[in-house]
Queue: 2 jobs
Job 1
Amino acid sequence: MPNIIRLVIAFALLGSAVALFVFGHWGWGILLVLLTILVVVTFFYNENMLIAQFYLRKENMERAAQWLGNIRNYERQLFKGQHGYYFLLIGLIESRTAPLKSEKHFKKALSLGLGMSHNTAMAYLSLAGIAMAKRNKREATRFLQDAKRADTNKLLAEQIKTMKDQMSLMDRTQTRFR
């Protein structure tokens, strides 16, 4: 459902709630206010993306992809601040099946912008892993530095350290086989 329609529904529900309050039907008015809040929340947080994030946490990638597939036109259905998160979720799902193909989704998510610093760090960390898989150490190092810079709350510090250790192992294996 387009966001404009959600706003129209929210204003109609709010108007109905005010009318019910005026006529003395407090119970029904409170119920409509709660429904209005629910509709407004779905304006800022798309329900398909919320359910897809739930299935991602449960590691059920098929169901998460199915819910993200319900978003046909992300520019019309999503609030502008969610465009980056849409591509981040697609990249995370695709990275499980085809990691090298998910690179474009992570870059698109970063170009559209992510509101939270740890999500930006996660996208950079995923790009670093893809660069390591391609044996591109310079790019992987740059992405790791960007991830470390973006991870202000140190939520991904352990993963960044592990990735750096793997990169040093990659150097040793390359010199051993030469």
Note: The longest helix spans residues 3-22.
Job 2
Amino acid sequence: MKKNGTLFKQFIFAAILLTGLLGPQYSYGQLKTDDGDDNDQPAQAPKPVPVKYPKVVGYLSFIIPVVTMDKNTTTTNFTTATSIGFPVGVNILYSDRFGFSYEFTPTIKSQNSMSKTSNLLFDPGPMFRFDHGFTFIPRLAFETSGRYGVTPVFNQIIKRTKFVNYFVAASVPVRFGNQEAASIGGNIQFGFIFN
């Protein structure tokens, strides 16, 4: 039994050693050029593959309505109630500069030790894409609460990875209707886009 245990340990050690010796050749820093020259110089990182359009990507996020103002009152989140929205959507990218976004946002409101889904927002809009991950999205807005309007969104990608891109966005919702005064607000949103 002791001999089998020693053999197993040797096998594990050999597997780790073999992985350590073979693994580095697959990392970008250790790639060699394929030009036949064995000069031990690392190759350049592979060039990114051009994106084929149209491209469809989905995203998940959460949004915090910071403040809402109308002619009568100013309401801030986290004072008498807490509201958090969970936008999910699909972006159809037509080029490096333009796309269209379809977004649904259910909102959960917590007040007086009770919580409930208080609203569902549908806000589609065109995407104007700029350099360095910045996007401007002027959205239309239709709420199940009876309100409607527009929501300009200023979106910035803050980190890119192979599978997802993380973003932060600021939005300025303007709402009308449902026998209430017109309002304007300020929101902040965090989320990730699937690549």
Note: The helical segments are 2-22.
